[in-house]
Amino acid sequence: MAGKSFAGKVRAAAQKLKEFTVGDIVDALSPKKYLRPDKVDWTLRDMLKRGEIDRIAPGVYRYAQPPDVPVATRACRAMHVKGSFTASDIVMLSDAERSYVNTLIRGLLAAGHLEHGGVTRAGSGKNINVFRIVHRDRFYLEHCR
Amino acid sequence: MREDVFISTQNFQKFQGLVDDVLGTSLGVEIAVVLGAYGRGKTRAAQRIISMNGGTVYVYYEPRMSLAGLVREIAFALGGVRPRSSDACVEVIKEELSIRRRAVLVDEADQMSVSQLNQLRAFHDLHRAPLVLIGEDALWRKIAREGRVASRVRQVLRFEPITQADLVVFYRQAVDQAVTPAQAAQLLRAAKGDFRSVVVGAARAERIMRASGIKDITDDIVKAVCDGR
Predict the structure, then answer these.
(1) Domains of chain A (ranges plus CATH)?
(2) C-beta neighbour count of A93 within 10 angstroms
(3) Model pTM?
(4) Which run of H or of E encompasses B156?
(5) Least Cα separation, residue B203 to chain A (angstroms)
(6) How many angstroms away from the CA of B4 is the closest CA of chain A?
């Protein structure tokens, strides 16, 4: 079983089962039930906080496959699919870090792939820049595939 | 309010599971349908899946699109080219899907004509194209009228109204407020299951709290949000 730590063993079992309960993990790790379920429960809570698993029903979890797309591509795909967007939109859709998204947008603006599309007001009252893709097709071919 | 928070709602998780299923197994019945009233978060969920999953492509159906226009958009999403003739577009689609299996998510599919739905059925039959059609309930009425399309639908996912758990998580992550079960139930009733209404309500609650200098959400604020004041 991959991973020597207890969390590694739980992760490997979760990956194998895909959808599971605490009891399923206990069964997978210790068929004779020598394992205390609360130990698994705490590990699952940590995994839930880290976004490694999703809770799909009370007591039922699903292993969340890590994204197979590099972060820059994810952010660019999010930009393309939105067309007109704020940095927050891209953070929300791509799970990229805010600072990374800001840097990426600055680079794309300088390269002429993006342009300012005005300013919008956030719920907090702050003004937020809106950006637009200049040539959607070219952007898709160069950054999203 | 934090506007960069994505809440993995139960609807989103089911949607993601549906796309994984369509991409993962080829049964010869590769059409999936996602239905739901406006404001339930179908498009946002689709945008998130497109961003995170390289095995998907997105086509936004616009009412101005002709049949040829739709075929051309799918060809561009898959192959990166938009040939003028429909035959050439179909060749691109065929070639791209034979190289790599990808799911085509078609948003606003409820506005498509029956002939366009039948064209998608032809792609499905001839090239085993995994298709996810997204739209409001009218989409299912159109599909149900065309038995040939309906029989090729593997799974139908209905976006249910937002749950109380989703609302509590949204308030905690986006507004940093812990709402009580009673407050959550009240906010949920006022939102009528519409995620957009929840977002607007949260922004309103935050504005009231900022204006009055209150740190934690109270029953009076919840009432004001629900009354639309």
Answers:
(1) 6-63 (1.10.10.10), 71-144 (1.10.10.10)
(2) 25
(3) 0.83
(4) strand B153-158
(5) 5
(6) 4
